[in-house]
Amino acid sequence: EDRNLLSIQIHDTGRNLAFSSPTLKSFFASFSFFQIKKSMSLVLSSFLNRLASNSGRQVARRGLNVAARPSDLVGKTPLLDLTPYLEKKGVTNNSKLYGKMESLGPCSSVKDRLGRSMIDDAEEKGLITPGKTTLVEPTSGNTGIALAFIARERGYRCILTMPETMSIERRMMLLSLGCEVVLTPKEKAVSGAIAKAEEIKNEIGDDAIILQQFQNPANPKVHRETTGPEIWADTDGELDIFVSGVGTGGTVTGVSQYIKGCPEFDLPTLKPDLQTIAVEPQEQMLLTEAKGGEKRGEQGPHKIQGMGAGIIPGTIDLDYVDEVVAVHSDAAMETCTELWLEGVPVGVSSGAIVNAAVEVCKRPENAGKLAVCIIPSFGERYFTHPMFEPIKAQAEGLQKQPLPEPFDNTEFGFATPRG
Fold first, then answer.
1. How far apart are CA 163 and CA 145, in angstroms?
2. Which residues have a Cβ under 8 Å from the Cβ of 383 and sit 6 or more positions away?
3. pLDDT of amino acid 46
């Protein structure tokens, strides 16, 4: 059913034609191929082209890229070449940096994968029932958004607890998706949100469930089964360094298990010497300490939403982490701003991850190597974050300008016709 193929067949094989299309068979049944002359070539070619064109349109309709439901859009995010940014930061050792654009998911974050994975897993195990079960979850925002949109899709009530530091944009998204939001004291970070979620679940009883993103095996599982294979395929197995922020630790663990190999899940070793770099806020260096390093600087609240939960998650396997890089909130915000000016609108956690990736790539021992870093979320969700305060002030300070002739600008509030 390819127009070029049909044209080639009619001109190259002459009378020895074998057509599989019933329409073509019917058409040629009335002809004796021995009587076909060269003068008929154009007529036959035109007919075949029209037939192939119509058939092609039918095939196109059968092959439309249409998702059946919103959660079917999760995954298969592209890589973006960030090497030009790397070079602007003075890295000239021929290393390369690609960003895994999880910000392009249906709800704009890497947590879309986690939300779907946990709900799919619970449904398969018969733990939850649409219209009956209430999903309760402690979250820093993006996991909650993922759970909220899938809960809305499938008919679950959803209650989310989160620290009061989470942005207004995240809260608005959750409320718009029909979710109930409960804020907890910032001083206790995620641990406070976890305690509140447990209280709510106990109040509701057996019809409530906490999917436990910080403990749920479906968390690293989805990255073993999707994110890791995607990165491996899209780099043709050439990546040398993997850089990921740690919220729950599912991404850094699952991707590393897939590429480095994991006997527990029957995964063969693809690249045993892959460097896995975990990124955490400098103000909360729990992972650094857990890996035997020392904390530096003042420890406490930070401004990198989605990272540094204040706990060591049960979903991270530190044996797969080769190094922890701590990035200060100020450095993360600076890098985030630079990425926006590169035309890559991302959140502050992406700034932290890319900042760490640049530092790792510039090392002499990493010359000529390829690093892939996770870009966890889209930037529009963070406009009330402190890093955007100067931009907000600039936007609020903009003034309308007078219009050219023949407009009379006094009609628009100006003092004179010309403004």
1. 14
2. 167, 169, 391, 392
3. 52
CB contact burial 208-218 (16+ within 10 A = b; e otherwise): bbbbbbbebeb
183 forms bridges with which residues in the sheet? 162
Query: Residue 360 has what pLDDT?
Result: 98
Residue spans of the chain under pLDDT 50? 1-45, 48, 51-53, 55-60
Q: Which of 117, 349, 350, 377 is catalytic?
A: 349
For position 50, what pLDDT does the model report?
53
Q: Where are the alpha helices (DSSP H) in 89-222?
A: 111-124, 142-154, 168-176, 189-204, 218-222
Q: Please give the model's pTM, rounded to 2 decimal places.
A: 0.82
pLDDT score for 381 = 84
Q: Are strands 96-101 and 180-184 parallel, antiparallel or unpaired?
A: unpaired
Pairing of the two strands 96-101 and 370-375 = parallel
- The angle subtended at Cα 297 by Cα 293 and Cα 302, nearest 5°, is 100
| Catalytic residue flag (residue 111) | yes
What is the C-alpha to C-alpha distance for residues 222 and 349, in angstroms, rounded to an integer? 21
Instruction: Judge whether 243 and 374 are in contact, CB under 8 Å.
Output: yes
Among candidate residues 96, 111, 201, 369, the one labeled active-site is 111
Residue 222: name the closest of 379, 380, 105 by CA.
105
pLDDT at 190: 79
Does the active-site annotation cover 30? no
What b-and-e string marks burial along 350-376, b requiring 16 or more CB atoms within 10 Å of the CB? bbbbbbbbbbbbbeeebeebbbbbbbb
- Are 112 and 139 in contact, with CB atoms under 8 Å apart? no
Helix (H, G, I), strand (E, B) or coil at 260: helix
Is there a cis peptide before residue 406, judged by omega within 30 degrees of 0?
yes
Tell me 146's DSSP state. Answer: H
Cα–Cα distance for residue pair 123/412, rounded to 1 Å: 59
